[in-house]
Design a protein that fits this description.
By secondary structure, the chain is of the alpha/beta class. The chain is 39% helix and 25% strand. It contains nine helices and eleven strands. α1 (3-15) packs across α2 (18-25), α1 crosses α4 (59-82) and α2 crosses α3 (29-43). The relative contact order is 0.13.
Amino acid sequence: MDFKQIRYFVAVAEAGSFSAGARRAFVTQPTLSAAIASLEAELGFALLERHARGARLTPRGEEVLETSRSILRQAERLKAASSGRLPGRPLRLGILPTIAPAFVAQCLERLRAIEPGRPWRTEDAPLAKLQQRLANGRYDVVLTALGSAARGHRQLELAADRQALAVSARSFPRGPVSPEILAGQPLIVRVHCEQLQSASRILDAWKVRPKVVAQTDSDARALAMVAAGLGFCLMPDSFEHPEVRMLHPEGVDLTRRLGFEWVRGGADGWLDRALDGL
């Protein structure tokens, strides 16, 4: 039995499914499933039951969950106490604002869990400024859309998303679509999107001219307007809204790699050690 098995079990129990648990733990689903199966074999009983909508705890699993949470909390306290140093200045983290809020929160949760006593502070900034401020030392690490790592930098890819067509779930049928569907239709433009020019070139290539009805730098506002049926919007499929459906137009593949980037040896080498363990 090891901490990874316990951590993966807690992730699935809290997320409600193996796939969501794997995303929360930043591992592949087969790796997570194998670890939990090994834990169950060692314990001699099942912890989780799969069902149509995900996974549920068995009665024995509910008992083990509280114990597992306690073990992880105690391990975090021990790690913090054994560091033998004062917290020092906050870890300065720059965040790309076009990353889905739920994913940002998960990443921050995992980073904080590595050393609970370490102070930290976040700041949103567009892609170009993130890179500039990381290079000049204003940020220790950035959570961003990854490209080619600059010289002396390190990266840790955590997930990926794709540019999708956000439509009202109430008024738009399921099925394959192409960018042509935007011809003459109301379009909500996210002016802060770093893939805006690439998306515009695709529409130009298809000779599609949508009707721009709104421009905003708020993803929450864009989602709300789409949900209300006020227009379509091009945005990453990692964003979620109960009344919005994300469609992937045929022939469009604007994918982002998401993760941490930092300068090798940053934060006195703590980042190299900490992020290697994620």
